[in-house]
């Protein structure tokens, strides 16, 4: 280090030309990332240090430091930066109960991130969504199904969440911890899971038992075992301090107990919450807020507040050396990623853009979609026998909704196929009739269906003629289109992507022409939803005419446009005849935005009538119902019955869809229900009356194929629920109660509609020969358990073997869960094939947390149950005794 300081001092005296020729220590790849970062930070001015501490770190030309944005999203595919491989939403990935698959998905996400980053650097792009610091996974515990962001998590169980989160982090970062492919950022640390409308001001005081038993274990696994290079602190306060200013979380636990060496980033705007009057009111102003964040250990500010850090230093609120610590962590991460090295020195820098959406990546997405399917009920109707059905009615708002495939924080798929279209292909011998059937909830908009559009006034097909134009000054639509095709409906996500290969993503126009026919005469409300584009800085405009009369004309300003839903407009139809319609759309932006969905708000009851009519003439009904990421999600401006600000006020199936199911049931036709949602739904009527119920989540770009293959038996489902499906919201404590009493399968005292870990198959499995390696265990020793699983059915299938620990009911002051998952394996077996599975439980797996938050292995009589679900008649049970006690480190 002495040599480095001397070199640094000498280099500071060199003329600029000579400095450019010299190899400075931070450019020397033979030094450690920490040494290089220390040298580079020593050369920065105070103002430069402050600028580098926000997520949009600017370039420093005099030192050859390129601009870098720490914000990138990779929850289930690299998001918002053009086409990428789209996997099922995180809750769907959790339903696979397949940890090795999650590691493969993480590998694909970071490989595509590198492909995009390498291409962006070649084009001198250093923007948001093109970096290598991935703000995923979300490993908050989904403690209450009303939380709209629960779809982003791996469910309600700390062990399942920790196992899947660990695998995803390892996949993202790659096999070499010192040279990661990308840096993972588990979030939101900690005790965060709604409500959305109070997240900036809520203070949570969890019991010490709940904190250490439920809210922290999965974070510990990703940091201690996974060596995640970053972590994101949450909006909420904990024990009176904002999470991003919490010494308990960021110093005592994260750095002292878990020996975390990486950097902490704030959630976006979380530092602002320190001083804003509508939030925590923890700090009097920006200067105090910034100092509090840095001193607590929040290294990156997503936002701009840290730009005032020079004033904080000058006011004596912190020392410049405190800021140096922050900057060294950030630059160490960039050094480890190889961002200051010659491209030839890193194999990751050679990843070509062709790896984006590579065939193997798409195949993995399809596999993940299939593995996420959870069969909840089957009276024998499934797998469907296509020869039995001449006319099939596919109904419901999710049969042809792009949003219901994507979920939120999503990658941008290329030409995804709607579920109704995949079913139409799969049921080749049948006539498939589609009816939208119901809005998600009365008053909520949904895409205008293809059935309302016609290519010709008489005859023709459902859909519109679509002409795609490259951007140009003047009238973009005056020239010849670059491509012409037919679009079934106007429902597209082109965020930072070209809609077709023939046009450029930065500047293009689309003209849709044809005819629109209303289902009944009257006044109808419409709107255009733009692709989610925060921050965009784009220009969007559209115009709608009907019978030559303008009914809507809208354009955004050339700055950040943060509202995705544009002003609503009305069209009055005097009849149900086709009327000429033209929609023109122009997108112009250097990188982001792009995409349009034409939505409508149908009158209450109208669509249900159409569904009932379709069912009466059908031999089979496939009802595709559930929720939408346009209703459940992050801090949304939505308030209709059952929904509030992105969260739900009730967990039952919305009344509009329930009415549709009941109307369809009057036909007496067999019905299979497909649920598509990001959180648990209470749909007891479907369980009681439908012939089959399949949970499909928000299944990604191959979701339609996964649904069709599962319904028809080309794929044998084996997904398991990662959350409890309760019967009613009355089964739950208050939403803002963070206590775990009567929450999740571990503490719930009632009878759920479907339990955590539940899922059916088209074959059967039996368990036998369960045994523990020892029946008398000394506290602190591991326990090995074996069991044999046999496919006792007539077709090949996958099974998820689940191991649960049942601690003594009277031990630990009654605080311990009644049962807790401590192992699982997903396996494939042929008919008649048997396999012996081995599980090993560590001292931590066998431990309990007391009322003071201390974790220890405690003496007593224990049981272990192994089966394809929670303990039941099909499970194998092993009893054993633990003697003595053993303290387990935090």
Automatic annotation (TrEMBL):
GO MF terms, alphabetically ordered: alpha-L-arabinofuranosidase activity; xylan 1,4-beta-xylosidase activity
Keywords, ordered alphabetically: Hydrolase, Signal
Transmembrane segments: none
SMART domains: Fn3_like, PA14
Domain PA14, residue spans: 459-615
A GO biological-process term: xylan catabolic process
Span of the signal peptide: 1-20
InterPro entries from the UniProt entry: BXL, Fn3-like, GH, Glyco_hydro_3_C, Glyco_hydro_3_C_sf, Glyco_hydro_3_N, Glyco_hydro_3_N_sf, Ig-like_fold
Similarity field: Belongs to the glycosyl hydrolase 3 family.
The name this protein goes by in its record: Glycoside hydrolase family 3 protein
Organism in which the protein naturally occurs: Terriglobus albidus
